[in-house]
Write a structure and sequence with these properties.
The protein is α+β, with helices and mostly antiparallel strands. Helices cover about 30% and strands about 25% of the residues.
């Protein structure tokens, strides 16, 4: 990476005062990032190569004001945290939402060290919003949408993140009564080659949902909005709106107005969902 343009990143996430390199500052940056930059895989569906090179990601998510999936979001997020003075490293994880067998290492999060203790932070989880949490067995946190999160440590899966909350503030996966597993990880180094392999699987493997389903979501101040193929759902406070979009012009408008993504009519047609 060349020099990281922190001012442009902070403008992109609408955060004038990022705070210090502490827990409050970490929470503020992650929250602003998720409110501003959507989670999406539209370039995969359009047949484009997904680069996780730092400069390419900055050009896409900041300069071009697009979104991306976890490997894109969290690379940008890690670079921003480092520029803000945080001690941070990437960590690979396994997503358990809807999994029927042990899932591959196809999710990337951030491990942030604050005052000698490790925290998990995640600006690229498309399923719901997870606030930063200390890496401590039994640690709990509550998201602004009311969902509760818990960290536990298991012998086989390592650290497991659990969520209990309204299904309307998720993308529809991994919901049910009580705490549901979100993802797990065993702490250890994630080298660039490991991240590249995970990114390649997410973008190109036949079993990856990113190659078969158009996924777009964004965090709202008190909720969550998602667009899965033609199914639109928005939860804000206690109000939920759901609809099936049948007109590509409406889809294009919805992408632009709520998610800030501007595709041409030709690109929308190429997605293959109409």
């Amino acid at each position: 990476m060349t020099s990281f343009n922190l001012a442009a990143y902070l403008e992109r996430i609408h955060l004038a005062e990022p705070g210090g390199a502490d827990a409050a500052g970490l929470a503020a940056v992650q929250r602003a990032h998720r409110l501003a930059i959507p989670f999406e895989n539209l370039d995969v569906m359009l047949g484009r190569t997904i680069s996780i090179d730092s400069d390419a990601l900055f050009a896409k998510l900041v300069t071009a004001r697009r979104g991306g999936y976890c490997f894109e979001h969290n690379r940008l997020f890690l670079n921003a945290l480092a520029a803000l003075g945080f001690v941070v490293r990437p960590q690979l994880a396994r997503v358990w939402l809807g999994a029927e067998a042990v899932p591959p290492l196809t999710h990337a999060i951030a491990i942030v060290t604050i005052d000698g203790g490790d925290w998990i932070a995640d600006a690229g989880f498309g399923g719901s919003y997870t606030p930063p949490m200390p890496l401590s067995d039994g640690a709990e946190a509550t998201a602004p949408d009311g969902a509760r999160f818990r960290l536990t440590r298991e012998e086989e899966r390592g650290w497991v993140l659990w969520r209990a909350g309204d299904a309307a503030t998720t993308d529809g996966r991994g919901t049910g009564e009580g705490f549901q597993p979100q993802y797990s990880f065993v702490p250890g180094p994630a080298y660039d080659a490991d991240l590249a392999m995970g990114n390649l699987w997410a973008a190109a493997a036949p079993a990856s949902r990113f190659g078969t389903t158009c996924v777009v979501s964004v965090v709202l101040p008190k909720g969550f909005a998602s667009l899965t193929d033609r199914r639109y759902r928005r939860r804000s406070g206690s109000e939920t709106t759901e609809a099936e979009i049948t007109d590509p012009r409406v889809y294009k408008l919805r992408l632009s107005m709520l998610f800030g993504i501007d595709l041409s009519a030709e690109e929308v047609a190429k997605l293959g969902i109409f």
